[in-house]
From TrEMBL:
GO terms for molecular function: alpha,alpha-trehalose-phosphate synthase (UDP-forming) activity; trehalose-phosphatase activity. GO terms for biological process: trehalose biosynthetic process. It comes from Trebonia kvetii. Pfam families: Glyco_transf_20. This is Trehalose-6-phosphate synthase. It comes from the Bacteria. Belongs to the glycosyltransferase 20 family. GO terms for cellular component: cytosol.
Amino acid sequence: MTNDPSRLLIVASNRGPVSYGQAADGSLTARRGGGGMVSGLMSGLGAVAADGGGLWLCAALSEADREAARHPELAAVGPGEVPVRMLDIPAGVFDKAYNGIANSVLWFVHHMLFDTPNQPHFDAAFRADWTAYVAYNEAFADALAQECGQGTRVLIQDYHLSLAPRLLRDRHPAARIAHFEHTPWAPPEYYQMLPDDVAIAVLDGMLGADHVGFLAARWADAFLDCCERVLGAQVTRTRAGAGRVAYRDRVTAVAVHPLGVDAAELRARGREADVRAHARLLAELAGGRQLIVRVDRTELSKNMVRGLAAYRELLRTRPEWRGRVTHLAFAYPSRSALPEYQAYTARVHELAAEISAEFRTPAWEPLILDLKDDYPRSLAACGIADVLLVNPIRDGMNLVAEEGPILSERGCALVLSREAGAAALVGEAALLVNPYDVSATADALHAGLAMQAAERQRRSAAIASAATARAPRRWLAEQVEALG
Ligand code: F6P
């Protein structure tokens, strides 16, 4: 590690590598942050920042995090001993920025999730949330400007921090800034649902960066289209998913960096005792039946309701599978403060209960739905799956689609939504489906269950090698290299 600021690498993201909980006696306990963005950085940052040193700047997400942020002696250390700095943003500002704008507006726009007869409503409440979102981005830009020296490279992550690249550029013109978007990007017709000033501010904010990255070519192309249509920027396309945007006084490069998985690291975790113990329990539960597995967050875009409906249709239309298959549907709770997520989770429980009531027998439980945060159990379920169901409506990438085949002991069939960024990476090795088409998803589940073991092995191995070729270290190194 050197003290040369131009070799320093700073990552900024909303969620960091650890978050804290507070025990009854007031003590703080640290736990690993979840999700694809954190996983990619956890696995890549140590190696990439090894020479010049690194820093991970993230937001305090809860009261326990804020408490920890006030005690520098508790400062967490990220991958490869990279120090972590948590920003203590006032709870009211954080809540409006995170729940009000990032999760309820930008996430919905990027995933095209609005139920348009009712949402969105861009009213006075939205304006108050937007003011908080600007303040939240300014807090990051201030902290980043403090940490940056001459030529420091800053990697800003995701839709929570769309404005931060421009705000940092204003404060520190010499910084080398990349923005990486882990979500899909909507075409201009949908994106322009945002109020005009907000639609412009988000694009302009991101274009404060030297380099803007996406997980799949279609998201990058949609972003370029928005820059052209909404900003009137001059866009040069070099190939699918890549180009340059000239806007205001600068040119920003746009490119695709698909995110894969470090297979050795993941398999090693999969061999640990806690995962093995879960695998034994789940195999006992299955009692020799085939397993259809899904592992998600309780997230609207993950499309759990249609996934369950497809399983029901499979059992209705192909009775030969009754008693011969069990569906493990696991998801860890997410964004439960939002009413849309509460209603959706209730619908998932309702449908699961209907399926059990329709098909269960004294000797067979067709579906085990469990919504809790249990990472070792998720790894175990992927390891013993016969069919893995990943059917999001839209998804930036979806790492479960890559991790499942890597963890799979005997090879699994992957039923994958063609609307996930991962579909471009794994291609025909998966059984690709239109996520809205419940019957086609039921057919694909059938094809996966009926597939010969050797064929499952072959497809799983192809997916694992495509994912491994894009390991997080490479994903991150490419972005750093793009900054020169
Ligand atoms: O952009 C995707 C992402 O950052 C993923 O990494 C993760 O699955 C999700 O969003 C995290 O959401 P949250 O931090 O709100 O739980």
